[in-house]
Amino acid sequence: MSTLPKVAWIGLGIMGSPMSENLVKAGYDVTGYTLEQDKLDRLAAAGGTAAGSIAEAVRDADVVITMVPASPQVEAIAYGPDGILENARQGSLLIDMSSITPQTSIDLAKAARQKGVRVLDAPVSGGEAGAVEAVLSIMVGGEQADFDEARPVFEALGRTIVLCGPHGSGQTVKAANQLIVAVNIQACAEAVVFLEKSGVDLKAALDVLNGGLAGSTVLTRKKDNFLSRDFRPGFRIDLHHKDMGIVTDAARTVGAALPVGAVVAQLVASLRAQGDGGLDHSALLRAVERLSGAQV
Questions:
Q1: Per-residue pLDDT tens digits for 207-225
Q2: What are all long-range contacts of 209-213, with beta carbons under 8 Å and residues at least 24 apart?
Q3: Helix intervals (H) in the chain
Q4: Arithmetic mean of pLDDT, 49-60
Q5: Binning pLDDT at 50, 70 and 90, where does residue 1 land?
């Protein structure tokens, strides 16, 4: 019998499916629940167990991990008679790896404490590739003892794992991450259009730029998207739009000015309004192309 904790995984999307499968590969007993049957079948094929409800998934779990799109979905699966808090056993650890508002994480931790459930907010960065390769960056908010207990689980999912402070801190750092990523993608997209219109060999240019100070993980991960105009979603514009709303609202609350971030947030919103919300966030290139006179 395995001595590893039993894990319930709620949310098997682009990120959640490969992450849960990495826990199975690491030897964890993973029971999953999501709304799409094909995702449940995928987990079962990987060696996990499909549950018919949240209650069934979490009932015997030592650790419950959630990975859903936004705050409303976290609240929907956490609260109510059929939710996690009413059905998880006392003493279990709830790790929310969704990207949501810091206040939602703080409120969840408070409500869970009344049910005897401990909570960590642990959003991630690295996109689908990072999830598949188990090299995610994981930014965590919560108590040190809970973080120490969860570290082996995190180590099966990511490479950079940091406790950033009390509840909500992981989400605050994730918001900053999404600000940096969006601005970086926008800068790369503008450079691509500039280079192409100048008649430069784009692949050669991006290779040399990525070897210098202009290089970044964003450029490394998204270079091929720019070159091939392949915008199949690794991280959708819809979700980055949500995240830019989180960071701009949180910055307003603490009195931090985000002049460049505010512009990029509007560019993300405009791309979504033009019907590109389901594309990868590297599709910010399409917005720059439109502004530059291209028909895309």
A1: 999 999 999 999 999 999 9
A2: none
A3: 16-25, 37-45, 54-58, 71-78, 84-87, 102-114, 127-133, 144-155, 169-197, 202-210, 217-228, 237-254, 259-271, 284-291
A4: 98
A5: low
**What does DSSP assign to residue 152?**
H
What's the whole-model pTM score? 0.92
Identify whether the C-beta of residue 244 lies closer than 8 Å to the C-beta of residue 272.
no
Q: Which of 65, 18, 5, 68 is nearest to 46 (CA)?
A: 18
Q: Specify whether domain 173-292 bears CATH 1.10.1040.10.
A: yes
Q: Which two tokens stand for residue 171?
A: 């989400």
Where is 94: in which H helix or E strand?
Answer: strand 93-96
The domain spans of the chain are 6-166, 173-292
250 burial level (CB within 10 Å; 0-12, 13-18, 19+): buried
Instruction: Give the contacts of 34 (CB within 8 A, at least 6 positions apart).
Output: 10, 11, 12, 13, 16, 40
Residue 2: is its pLDDT beyond 90? no
Q: What is the pLDDT of residue 269?
A: 98
Domain 6-166 sits in which CATH superfamily?
NAD(P)-binding Rossmann-like Domain (3.40.50.720)
Query: 81-106, pLDDT tens digit by residue?
Result: 999 999 999 999 999 999 999 999 99
Q: What is the pLDDT of residue 17?
A: 98
Tell me the pLDDT of the chain averaged across its residues. Answer: 97
Cite the active site residues: 174
Q: What is the amino acid identity at position 37?
A: Q
Check if the beta carbon of residue 142 is closer than 8 Å to that of residue 163. yes
C-beta of residue 275 within 8 angstroms of C-beta of residue 182 = no
Predicted confidence (pLDDT) at residue 7 exceeds the cutoff of 70? yes
Domains 6-166 and 173-292 share a fold: no
Is the per-residue pLDDT at 234 higher than 90? no
**Angle between the N-to-C axes of helices 202-210 and 169-197, in degrees from 0 to 180, rounded to the nearest 10:** 140
> What are the phi and psi torsion angles at 124 (to 5°)?
-130, 160
